[in-house]
Amino acid sequence: MQQLTERTPDRAYDILRAEYRPLDTIFTPKAIAVIGATERPGSVGRTLLWNLISNSFGGTVYPVNPQRRHVLGIKAYTSIAEVPEQVDLAVIATPAPTVPGIISQCVDAGVKGAIILSAGFKETGAAGVELEQQVLERVRQGKMRLIGPNCLGVMNPITGLNATFANGMARPGTVGFISQSGALCTSILDWSRRENVGFSAFVSIGSMLDVDWGDLIYYLGDDPQTKSIVIYMESIGDARSFLSAAREVALTKPIIVIKAGRTEAAAKAAASHTGALAGSDAVLDAAFRRCGVLRVNSIADLFDMAEVLAKQPRPKGPRLTIITNAGGPGVLATDALIGSGGELADLSLDTHTALEKILPPHGSHCNPIDILGDADPERYIKALEIAAGDRKSDGLLVILTPQAMTDPSQTAKQFQASVETLKTTSLRGKPILASWMGGTDVAEGEAILNQAGIPTYNYPDAAARTFSYMWKSSYNLRGIYETPVLPCAFGEGVLNRTQVEKIIQNAQQENRTLLTEFESKQVLAAYGIPTVQTCISRSEEQAVACAEAIGYPVVVKLLSKTITHKTDVGGVKLNLTDADEVRSAYRSIQSSVAKWAETRKQEDEDNSPLFEGVTVQPMVKLDGYELIIGSSIDPQFGPVLLFGTGGQLVEVFGDRAIALPPLNSTLARRMMEQTRIYKALQGVRGRESVDMGALEQLLVRFSQLVVEQPWIKEIDINPLLAKPVEENSTSPHPSLIALDARIVLHDADTDLEQLPKLAIKPYPTQYVAPWTLADGTPIVIRPIQPEDEPLLVKFHKTLSEESVYLRYFHMIKLKSRVAHERLTRMCFIDYDREMALVADYTNPQTGEHQILAVGRLSKLHGKNEAEFAMLVSDPYQCRGLGTELVRQLIQVGRDEKLERISAEILAENYGMQRVCEKLGFHIYRSSEASVVKAEIRL
Question: Cα separation of 737 and 741, whole Å?
Answer without folding.
Answer: 11
